[in-house]
Each structure stands twice: as C-alpha cells, then as structure tokens.
Fold each of these.
Amino acid sequence: MKIVSLLFISTLIVSCNSNQKEESEHQGRPSVHELINEFDSNKDGKLSESEVGGPLASDFQKIDADKDGFLSEKELELAPKPPRKGGEQTVVNKEDIDATVKGVSVNTSYFIKENIIGEITEKKVNLSGIETNCYVIKTHSQATEHQMGPWCPRHIEDGMEKAGIWFENDKVYDVSGHFIANLDEFYSDDKWKLFREDGSVKVTDSEISCLAAAKPDVEEKYHNHCVECLPEYFKDQVTTFVIPVNPQYLKKTQSFGRGGIGVAFNGVKYDPPAPTHAILAAHTIAPLDDHGGHVNPHGGYHYHAITGSTKEVAQSDAHAPMIGYAIDGFGIYALLDENGNAPTDLDECGGHFDDERGYHYHAGEPGGNQIIACLHGLPGYTEVKE
Ligand SMILES: [Zn+2]
Ligand SMILES: [Zn+2]
C-alpha cells in the first residue's frame, strides 16, 4: 500500500482546493524513475506484479502493454496518471462497482434546513460514465452552529483565545501571539518573522490581501504574513454538492478530483488537506479556527479538521456519531465511539464496514490535515459559483 500513499500524497499536496485555479507546481508526482527505485525490490530495473501495490497492482494488466509481466519505465510513463488538477477523476467502469459492499442511502433530513438554499432536489447525473441518481444540495458554506473565526492574532502578546489553531506532524497548536513570535524556532528557520517591531502581527486584513495570499503561489508582498480571509467576503458564493442518493462502493479507491471530500450537515464543505507545503514555503500560515475551518476565495468557509463543533447525528449503538456525507454518498462519522475508542480496522481511505451503517468513513485526528484520505465510492462532485 506504500504506493497508494506516495501517489496520493503528491496528488493532494497540490489539491487543497480542487476548485482553486492556481495550484502549486513545485510538488509533482514522483517520477517514474523514483517509482521504480522505490518498489523494485530485486533491482532489475522493472516492476513485477508482486513488487507493486495499490493502483499499480489493480491496473497492472492495463499498464503492462507488451504483456511480459513487468512494468518498464516506458510503460509506466504511458500509464494513466491520477488526477492532478481539479477536473478529471480516475476513470471508473461499471465493472469497478462492487455491489456486495452495501452503503446506506443519503438521508437529506440530517441537513440543517436553514443552511440549504431552496430545496434539496434529485436528478440523474452521469458520473464517470455511470448514470446515477443524485441529490443536488446548494449552500453558502457558512457555519451557523458555531462562530467562524478567529484566525490570526493581532499582537504577539495576544492569548490563544484571540486566534485559531495550526497543525504540524499530526499535532494541533494554538496560534497564540507567543506561537507567532516563535515560528522561527518552531520551524528551525530564521526567515520567519510574522510580526513588526512594535509586536503587531502582519495579517492579510483586507479582501485584496486575502486574494493575493490565500493561494499556493502567495504574492511576494504577503510572504511572512498570517493569512486570514473573512467569510463575509465570499458569502454570496453558492457551493453545489452533487451526491449519489445510493452510494456505490468501488473496488479501487479514488483520489479527490473536482469532487472535493464532502459536506457537513450545516452545508459547509469538507476540503482535502490544506497545501501546507506551499503555505509554509512562503513563510505564511493560514490558521484554522477552533472548529477546524478557514476561508479561501474558492468556496468560502471550509473545514480541514473535525473538532466536534458541528451538528452530529447520534447512533443507537455506541458507534461514533455521524457528522456529514462524503461526496460519494457514504457517511462520515467522528473518530471516537461513546467509550472514547477509535476504530482499528480502517482502510487506506479511513473507511470500514458494519451491518448497521454499511461502508462508511471515520474522520481523522484534527492535527492530521486530513478528514478522510480518499474515496471508496463513485464520487459525485462540488461546484462553486463565485
Ligand atoms: Zn483551506
Ligand atoms: Zn464505524
């Protein structure tokens, strides 16, 4: 499964926002050469089926064009690539659907009515060539159960209650003034200086500066800033979620394309991991608020972490509560059950199966910058009208 994470990591580093027009280019996929080096255990310069895993194993026959039982550098070069820019999803065929793995139909009554624009409608949509009955859910992606923000502290003396959180190596940190003042130590890099001589923090505190800084290629002028956009800048944007009514389990996993990850019951988008590599390269941080959300110009307020702040649907057994839907229609649940235990049998996407809920996902730890890692169902999609 090593290869899945390798391909996947490189895809998601550039895809914080599938709708984002500008994406960081400085993190590519591993080259074919690197792939061979990594998995060629007998060092014969080509990959046999037993040496590979993940998508390469499931697509082995397709990639092995000359059918010699090995993947050569040339064959790998010509292999279909996982989606990089938002747009295309991995190709899905009818045969990829595994009808033996059941899910539960989407229950639209779980959504908070006030947060949905108009009614949730149903329509037939062609998803990767498969005609699928979908729900169409429109929202302004604005939380109502909790306050949105704060994100950046204004002074290095500010306490953590004046700001949000940041994450590094699976750990969550409060972005207090003290944290901002010590970023050079935190990252062992003396180029960090997010504050002025008077102790005030450099914050992108206008819509113009937010637009210039809340993207992977941060404008030079806003390097060494705490990046913050406000929900009201983008409150008129409409995010449309198109989600299969009856989720269909696929034998192979799907990376996040333009589909995004999913939606909370308050209509706020769950986003793929924040592109921390690009953010940090510009000596910026883009804190999440204490609820795991922040704002960007392509969809407004969205979550990168689950902190238990949004509507939950309790389960009749001790299972963790439900918190929303993935874009493939399978449910997303909190990590911990009533007794404080996390499931131990999650697959590479963060999902597993039980009789009550069918296939479903559990959200990752808040510090992990990853709500779920991939999709195991036929993905719907998200559209943002700016
Ligand atoms: Zn984000
Ligand atoms: Zn579960």
Amino acid sequence: MKGLILTDKISDRIAVRDVELPELKDDEVLVEIRAAALNHRDQWCREGRYPNIQNGVILGSDGAGVVKKLGRDVDPTWQEKEVIINPAMNWGENQKAQSKDFQILGMPSHGTFAEFVVVKGDRLYTKPEHLSWEEAAALPLGGLTAYRSVFFHGKVEKGQKVLVTGFGGGVAQFAAQFAVAAGAEVFVTSGKEEKLSIARQQGVKEGFNYKKENWAEDARKVTGGFDLVIDSAVGDTWGDLLKVLKPGGKLVFYGATLGNPTGLDMRRVFWNQLTIQGSTMGSDSNFEEMLAFVKSTKIVPVVDQVFKLDDALQAFDRMKAGDQIGKIVLSMD
Ligand SMILES: NC(=O)c1ccc[n+]([C@@H]2O[C@H](COP(=O)([O-])OP(=O)(O)OC[C@H]3O[C@@H](n4cnc5c(N)ncnc54)[C@H](OP(=O)(O)O)[C@@H]3O)[C@@H](O)[C@H]2O)c1
C-alpha cells in the first residue's frame, strides 16, 4: 500500500512510498482510509522536534474510513462500517491523566497517511452522519484536545467570557466552536486580520490581532476580562494572557508552540487567584462525550484545504507556514 513515511534519506524528510500492509492481531482491524488530517505533531515529527521519532513510520493521527478486515476477537458488526478512529491509545482508567503506556497513533506506530491503517478494534467510532469524509477525518485529535481543554478542565459555562488564542489553528477552531455551542461569549486572537474577520462570521464576538502591541489592553477594555483562556502558543504571550484574565480566571493550555515563557509575573497569579492548567488530548470518555456533543450540535469541523496523498509535501508546508484556517486534510480518493 501507499503511505507517507518519515525518512532521513531526503531533505524534505517525508515521502510517499510502498509500505507492506501489517498483519492483523486478534484485537485489531484494518481500515481503508478515505481521508486523513494533519496535526502540528506531524510537522514536529518532520522537523525532528518530537520525542521517540523513528524513520520508516507512516505519519498521521487523524483518519476516517471503512472497516475492511477484523481480527478474531473484534465484534463482527464493524465489518464495512464507516468509522472515525480515536488516535489516543492506552489512556487508562484515570480521568485526570494518561497512563505511562499512552501513545498517539502515527508515531511510533504506523498512522493514517496511507491507503490502510491497522488499529485496535476499541479505537473505532461510528462516523457522524452529518460529516463528509474530509470533515470526519478532521475531527478526532483536534476535537478531543479542544473538548478536554474547554469542558473537562475549562468547565466552560453559559454566558462566560472565553478567549481562544491563535484562531487559525486546528485545535483552536474546535475550541472556539465548542465554547460558542456551549453558550459562552467567545473572543479570539490571531496574527492575521483575514482570520479574525472569518472568526466574526462564525459566532465569535470579537477578534484581536496578537501582533498589535496593545491588543491585551484593547481586549480588557472591550470585554472586561475573561473567565477562561484556551492557549497553545505560550512563550512570552503569557504576560498578556495573565493580564486579560479576570480574578479567579483560568488559563488552560495544550501546547507550547513558542516554547517556555520568560519573566512571568507570578505575583499576578496568586494575587488574582488564577489557575494555570495543562491539558493533553483526552480519555476515551472525553472522546465519547466530544463525539456525542458534535453529533447533537451538528458542529462541522472547518476544513482549510484538501490535498491528495501524493501532494502531502504541499500540505505540510502549508501548516509550517501557518497559512491555514482549520484543518488541512489529505484525501485518499
Ligand atoms: N497536548 C496535546 O494533546 C496537543 C494536541 C494538539 C496540538 N497540540 C499542540 O498545540 C499546538 C497547536 O497545534 P495545532 O495542531 O492546532 O497547530 P496548527 O493548526 O498548526 O496551529 C498553530 C496556530 O498557532 C497560532 N499561533 C502562532 N503564534 C501564535 C501566538 N504568538 N499567539 C497565539 N497563537 C499563535 C497560529 O494562529 P493564527 O494563524 O490564527 O495566528 C497558528 O495557526 C502545537 O504546538 C501542537 O503540538 C497539543
């Protein structure tokens, strides 16, 4: 089968190659991938900036497709079903944090940027009927991460003021959509004006350009401060984020794209009784709740652009440049 592997043999680090179809174990299934979606993790792997990366592995955590073969122990009713795959593997029983065996599909195990993927039968979920293949493929990792950040940790409530930073990002898109659907007043930041105007068309109250020096002051004037901020940039943006939180507010972050913060005003954190909470993907319960929420609210993931598997290099370069609004998708058709 064709698959997009990580390789150090070429300067681009990724290439579509023929890869042997893995054998099925008793608890596994073979899914024919119809569409797959990029996450920043895939680009981090390409740049060698992710732990435990191995050459020869097929990248990709997000996928939707049709179940083609079942291991002996898998419920036979899955045969030929249209599914999405939960890429969070071995979370374990503790809802507060993942187990030491936790892994994400697509490194070090073969992922979804291929014609077929082998996963455990318990990673299958019925594809939401209101979504196309591309939209369904866009949902799993970003939807799960955003859901846990906004609901499990953020405990968003109707009427609260919520700020989602970096609106163009794949996860940020879901966080904004979920918070809007939960009845919050949602505000966003972005480094690009055109992304801010798109946000306003999607139920977001107002957007602020984080490249403008006084954006945080403007945001405080307009909103009076936020109950909840959802972020994945970190770096030195946190000085501003701590300033725009209301006393008693919470900052939930699921990434650190810009690295660690320097010179953080920790007095502001204790004096204003702020909470800083880290979050990573989510448990199986979080995934089930996220899927039920998306089905009941008929939320549709924002698909930025769809590329053929053979054009995956262009798709990765688009993510690297940060030009996207929402999810970049690979179609296997
Ligand atoms: N812990 C987890 O489970 C988990 C899960 C998924 C992702 N992540 C991490 O979260 C981060 C985002 O992932 P993604 O897949 O959503 O990436 P993505 O689609 O590539 O989005 C990245 C976004 O970051 C925003 N950004 C860049 N500089 C910023 C700044 N100074 N302030 C605010 N936002 C800024 C940009 O938004 P604009 O274009 O709007 O400016 C950009 O679109 C990555 O670091 C990723 O590794 C972690």
